[in-house]
Design a protein that fits this description.
The chain has helices at residues 4-19, 77-86, 99-104, 134-144, 165-188, 196-207; strands at 29-33, 39-42, 58-61, 66-68, 92-96, 124-126, 150-153, 157-162. With 212 residues, it is of the alpha+beta class. The chain has a single domain, classed as Class II aldolase/adducin N-terminal domain (L-fuculose-1-phosphate Aldolase, 3-Layer(aba) Sandwich). It has an eight-stranded mixed sheet with strand order 4-3-2-1-5-8-7-6, sandwiched between helices. A hairpin with a 3-residue loop joins strand 7 and strand 8. The structure holds zinc ion (ZN).
């Protein structure tokens, strides 16, 4: 099988997302660029993840054209490939409909509540456009900008990316954690994100690999 390692990384990541409750049913999708070729492994459309096998992960080119795999690639492929075309530093992308990220996407740009979350801000909100469209793909690219790792998509979910799958997954996990803590803190009337100065310092420490 071609691109087996890349396909396996995508499958492992989507199963982790299912286990963590970030993905329910067949919603959400994950992609990874192959390290050697300009092709992307991506979860297929409408297939249950729990019983998915490595060969069922679809392969597309950098424009999202279906090249290999028995099932058609995710309908949200344009978002993943658009971000990888725009950002040479990105090799992995994670899109989920996590409950709290989706709630916060209606209105709230997320700010860190705890230090590890600082790596993934700013988390801005992409206005609603139809899922699977080139329009939503373009808006995600624009909102992430040159170095963003996470954004919320209004009435839809979140989109995260990273230099590798570990970073893209961490972005998705911490974005959902940020959304969950933000939601409960706001509902409890005690919302107080980290101070701006501390966020800047923490981001610099993480970037220099000096955070504890
Ligand atoms: Zn979606």
């Amino acid at each position: 099988m071609k691109y087996e390692k890349t396909r396996q990384t995508v499958l492992n990541a989507i199963l982790d997302c299912v286990d963590m409750g970030l993905i329910h049913g067949t919603s959400g999708n994950i992609a990874m660029k192959d390290p050697d070729e300009d092709v992307v492994a991506i979860t297929p459309s409408g297939i249950r993840y729990k019983t998915m096998t490595v060969d069922q992960i679809a392969i597309v080119d950098m424009n999202g054209k279906w090249l290999d795999g028995p099932f058609k690639p995710s309908s949200e492929t344009p978002m993943h490939t658009a971000v990888m075309r725009a950002r040479k530093d990105v090799t992995a992308t994670v899109h989920t409909h996590g409950m709290f990220a989706t709630i916060c996407a209606m209105n709230w740009e997320l700010k860190p509540i705890t230090p590890p979350q600082c790596e993934f801000v700013p988390v801005r909100v992409v206005p609603f456009t139809m899922p699977g469209s080139d329009e939503v793909a373009a808006k995600v690219v624009e909102t992430l900008g040159e170095d963003g790792l996470s954004c919320l998509i209004k009435n839809h979910g979140m989109f995260c990316c990273g230099k590798n799958m570990a970073q893209a997954m961490a972005a998705a996990i911490y974005t959902e954690e940020m959304a969950t803590t933000t939601y409960y803190a706001k509902v409890a009337g005690i919302y107080e994100p980290m101070p701006e100065e501390a966020i800047k310092k923490m981001k610099a420490l993480i970037a220099a690999d000096q955070a504890v």
